[in-house]
UniProtKB/TrEMBL annotation:
Enzyme class: hydrolase
Keywords: Hydrolase, Metal-binding, Nucleotide biosynthesis, Zinc
Catalytic residues as annotated in Swiss-Prot or TrEMBL: E104
Protein name: Probable deoxycytidylate deaminase
Family recorded in the similarity comment: Belongs to the cytidine and deoxycytidylate deaminase family.
Length: 193
């Protein structure tokens, strides 16, 4: 190979190597979509005042846009300090299940009458039969959940019977990372960089 041609090849190789160094690759530890949506549901559950079970739900459309979130709580203006969070009181009127709006129902209501046709629900707890009726009627077509701790209860077996009957897909979400730490200080520290 003529000397000048060889030098040009070496220069080209050096240039390619230099350009490669300038090309900044994306970060690899970003939050994947399903973890992102389930983490949003989990974060929402942190708003729940239920001392026993905190549930969060997040509804996502086919363009991966979050259209609504919700958590379990008493209806608007029914004070958490007046209504009881009991679950085994002998007086049924003193039990929370008479009053609590479930997380999935709140998410559907929080969508503010926007069409939920073809959307996906991420919920930290498998939907009960009452929420399943709302899920079906609202047009939600897929469900991701974390816990199904009441699976053997007739209420939850009824949920699965309805979901199977209408072909709504439900599957347990297996997180790709065990935990996500949200530390407000981290963002503050960036400010001082
Ligand atoms: N799919 C569900 C199931 C239950 N909830 C709410 C209702 C209560 O506030 C709580 C369950 O309480 P526990 O019976 O475990 O003491 O979770 C919901 O939002 N969504
Ligand atoms: Zn429910």
């Amino acid at each position: 190979m003529p000397k000048e041609h060889k030098e040009k090849c070496e220069d080209a190789a050096d240039l390619t190597a230099s350009l490669a160094k300038l090309h900044i690759q994306k970060r690899q530890d970003y939050l994947h979509w399903d973890d992102y949506f389930m983490a949003t549901a989990l974060l929402s559950s942190r708003r729940s005042k239920d001392p026993s079970t905190q549930v969060g739900a997040c509804i996502v459309d086919k363009h991966k846009r979050i259209v609504a979130i919700g958590y379990n709580g008493f209806p608007r203006d029914c004070s958490d300090d007046v209504f009881s969070w009991s679950k085994d009181n002998s007086d049924p009127l003193e039990n929370k299940n008479m009053y609590v709006v479930h997380a999935e129902a709140n998410a559907i209501l929080n969508s503010n009458s926007r069409s939920l046709d073809g959307t996906r629900l991420y919920t930290t707890l498998f939907p009960c039969n009452e929420c399943t009726k709302l899920i079906i009627q609202s047009g939600i077509r897929e469900i991701y959940y974390i816990s199904d701790k009441y699976a053997e209860k007739p209420i939850y077996r009824a949920s699965k019977r309805m979901l199977d009957a209408v072909g709504i897909v439900y599957q347990r979400h297996v997180p790709t990372q065990k935990q996500i730490i949200i530390n407000f200080d981290d963002t503050l520290k960036e400010e001082s960089k």
